[in-house]
Specification:
The complex is a heterodimer of chains A (about 300) and B (about 300).
Chain A: E1 5-16, E2 19-30, E3 34-38, H1 45-52, E4 60-65, E5 68-69, H2 74-78, E6 81-84, H3 96-107, H4 111-121, H5 137-148, E7 155-159, H6 167-182, E8 186-191, H7 194-200, E9 203-208, E10 211-217, H8 218-221, E11 227-231, H9 235-243, E12 250-253, E13 257-261, H10 267-276, E14 283-287, H11 291-303
Parallel strand pairs in A: 3-8, 3-9, 6-7, 7-8
Antiparallel strand pairs in A: 1-2, 1-4, 4-5, 9-10, 11-13, 11-14, 12-13
Helix pairs in contact in A: 3-4
Chain B: H1 2-12, H2 16-49, H3 61-74, H4 81-110, H5 113-119, H6 124-161, H7 170-198, H8 201-225, H9 230-233, H10 238-245, H11 248-252, E1 257-258, E2 261-262, H12 266-289
Classes of the chains: A alpha/beta (about 300), B mainly alpha (about 300).
The complex binds adenosine-5'-triphosphate and magnesium ion.
């Protein structure tokens, strides 16, 4: 394992009876890197996280944290992990601060001294004395995120952390996640909020029905991103002209004109080519293909495959 | 092992329920003594003044009845704490622990906090060990508080009634408390196991109460059907618990009986109960170990 890989799974498999929830999943997170784990509902994201944390016994394969196998050396391995699960669960009768303290005592070391700074960092200082049962959904999420940092982890695992946060809160969490990476931690972020993933992740892994269907940097996955939507009267002729422009990989007719797939910064070139043929576009709008497009395209394709039931 | 226990105690001492249970034990001890005293002395007053309705007088006439009630009152004196007082703690404590034991484990499932604890690096083994040790500490506290409460109640009532407050025998109280506390453990372990198995405190409490009452009845029925079946009944929990809680061995020297058959001797009882406790804990560990912790 290269020194900077802090989290790795190899051939991870989980079967629930006849259901194959995770199917030979390999993933890696390096220090200072934010990796998005994407997939539709039921894809196996939370199950994967459960196996990394030793909550769920893998049917096959292994997971390791900073080189320590989470099955055989669970305690040492998990000492370096902070994890927030998809439903944030704390003791309802304890105050927010007491809940963090209970986890900090369990973790030992300097963890208790981090309780108050973390409450402040997550914007909970004002409400630290309120009972968890009185917390709003967003406050619960914040407490969950705070608890992941009590042990000064090398790996932070977040299962849909933005769930229930208002837009300002979502941005705060995105900034926080970037900060964590800057501090040299590796972050695994499971989500289906593509917007969130797009803004914070260095790399994404898309899984479906437990299987990895694509992995790469955002640029790689979105193919460098996009093209142009051109509104024009004689779409047929325009399409012929545009196909000859260098860099254009695809041309499609639409209701109001054509859509071309092309690298960014080709707008002027397209405009010139059309003008030379005395074709005048009323609008040339750049369209960046987003992760969302790719995600929906990929997962819809996959959804028609045979189910992976055993 | 120490960090998980410290965390557990941090949480436990801030929870309302353990305090309510301990408070109930303390309060009931006091109230019960006072209740016996007022009702019995009231009846006694009626009998002595000759105003008692005839239905109250039993066989042997008023004189015998008066003697019987006077004996009952004497039981409230400190000299009888090992029998009446600790017996009261035993009865009430069992029911309170059948409520608290399952809640001590089941709430971790209900609140989803088991996942939080395990995800924070706690091992399943340490989780269970911590739960059992803290439950044991709670049982010790409950027993001690109960005994303190009945002792205080006995003195209060004795002062009120002008009984002899001498004759307190700390050694016998201690021995009785010790056996009573031990006899709590099998039911506590069983109900905690059920709560863990069903992942619910409610299930543990309900099943615990049913088992507690039905097992006692069933063993009595078994013995009344065929006295030889007492060997089978003696392998259960209830007759061994009864044997440990009985103090008449040291008092009268005769073998105590229940349902017309002699109870197992106390060493045998302690061993059989130990076997049950170990079995319940082993089962709980096996179940916890072999089960995935998910939202399901
Ligand atoms: N304890 C369990 N028993 C049986 N099946 C389970 C269990 N836990 C999860 N599954 C199944 O495993 C599959 C993956 O579930 P998982 O929770 O990992 O999905 P997910 O990607 O986290 O989905 P979501 O985005 O909805 O949170 C689902 O089909 C789910 O029904
Ligand atoms: Mg999930």
């Amino acid at each position: 394992m290269p020194a900077d890989v802090v989290l790795r799974t190899q051939g991870l498999v989980k079967r629930f009876g006849g259901l194959l929830a995770v199917d030979h999943l390999d993933l890696e997170v390096r220090r200072g890197e934010v990796v998005g784990l994407l997939g539709p509902n039921g894809a196996g994201k939370s199950t994967t996280i459960g196996m990394i944390l030793g909550l769920v016994a893998p049917t096959a394969g292994r997971a390791e944290v900073v080189g320590l196998d989470v099955t055989t050396r669970r305690e040492q391995a998990l000492a370096r992990v902070g994890a927030m699960l998809e439903v944030t669960s704390f003791y309802p009768y304890l105050a927010g601060r007491e809940n963090l303290m209970a986890v900090a005592i369990l973790r030992g070391g300097a963890a208790p001294t981090r309780v108050d700074p973390l409450l402040a960092r997550l914007g909970l200082a004002q409400r630290a004395g309120s009972r968890f049962r009185e917390y709003s959904l967003g406050m619960r999420q914040r407490l969950g995120i705070a608890s992941t940092l009590l042990g000064d982890p090398a790996v932070v695992i977040l299962d849909e952390p933005a769930n229930g946060l208002d837009p300002a809160g979502q941005r705060e969490i995105r900034d926080l996640i970037r900060e964590l990476a800057t501090e040299g931690r590796g972050v695994l972020l499971a989500s289906h909020l593509l917007h969130e993933v797009e803004q914070v992740c260095d790399r994404v892994i898309v899984i479906q029905k437990g299987r990895k269907i694509v992995e790469g940097s955002l640029a790689e996955i979105t193919h460098g991103g996009g093209g142009y939507a051109i509104t024009i009267a004689d779409a047929q002729r325009a399409a012929e002209v545009l196909r000859r422009v260098s860099g254009v990989t695809e041309v499609r007719l639409t209701e109001r004109g054509v859509e071309v797939a092309a690298p960014p910064e080709r707008g002027a070139e397209l405009n010139r080519a059309l003008a030379e043929e005395r074709l005048f576009a009323s609008a040339i709008v750049p369209r960046r293909s987003t992760l969302e497009d790719v995600f929906i395209e990929l997962t819809e394709k996959g959804a028609n495959d045979a189910p992976p039931a055993a | 092992m120490l960090r998980p226990l410290r965390s557990e105690l941090y949480r436990m001492t801030r929870r309302l329920m353990p305090r309510v249970i301990l408070g109930a034990m303390f309060g009931f001890g006091l109230v019960f003594y006072e209740l016996i005293y007022t009702t019995v002395s009231q009846q006694l007053g009626l009998l002595r003044s000759g105003n008692a309705p005839s239905s109250v007088t039993g066989p042997g006439g008023t004189e015998a009845m008066i003697r019987q009630l006077e004996q009952t009152l004497q039981q409230l004196a400190p000299a009888s704490i090992p029998e009446l007082g600790v017996g009261l703690v035993a009865g009430l404590g069992t029911v309170l622990l059948i409520v608290y034991g399952p809640s001590h484990l089941g709430t971790e499932y209900g609140w989803g906090t088991l996942r939080t604890l395990l995800a924070s690096g706690l091992s399943r083994r340490a989780f269970l060990a911590t739960k059992l040790v803290s439950l044991l500490l709670f049982t010790v506290a409950l027993t001690a508080l109960g005994v303190v409460s009945v002792t205080a109640a006995s003195y209060l009532v004795s002062l009120q009634a002008g009984f002899d407050t001498g004759g307190l025998d700390p050694a016998r109280i201690l021995s009785a408390s010790w056996r009573t506390g031990y006899a709590f453990l099998p039911y506590t372990a069983l109900t905690a196991l059920i709560a863990l198995w069903a992942r619910s405190s409610g299930a543990g409490i309900a099943a615990g109460l049913v088992i507690f009452f039905v097992e006692g009845l069933a063993t009595q029925l078994l013995i009344s059907l065929n006295r030889d079946l007492v060997t089978v009944a003696n392998l259960g929990i209830s007759r061994n618990v009864a044997s440990l809680s009985r103090l008449s061995v040291s008092v009268s020297g005769s073998t105590p009986e229940s349902a017309g058959a002699p109870l197992p001797d106390q060493t045998q009882a302690a061993l059989v109960l130990a076997a049950w406790i170990v079995a319940f804990i082993a089962l709980a560990y096996w179940r916890l170990r072999s089960r995935d912790v998910t939202l399901a």
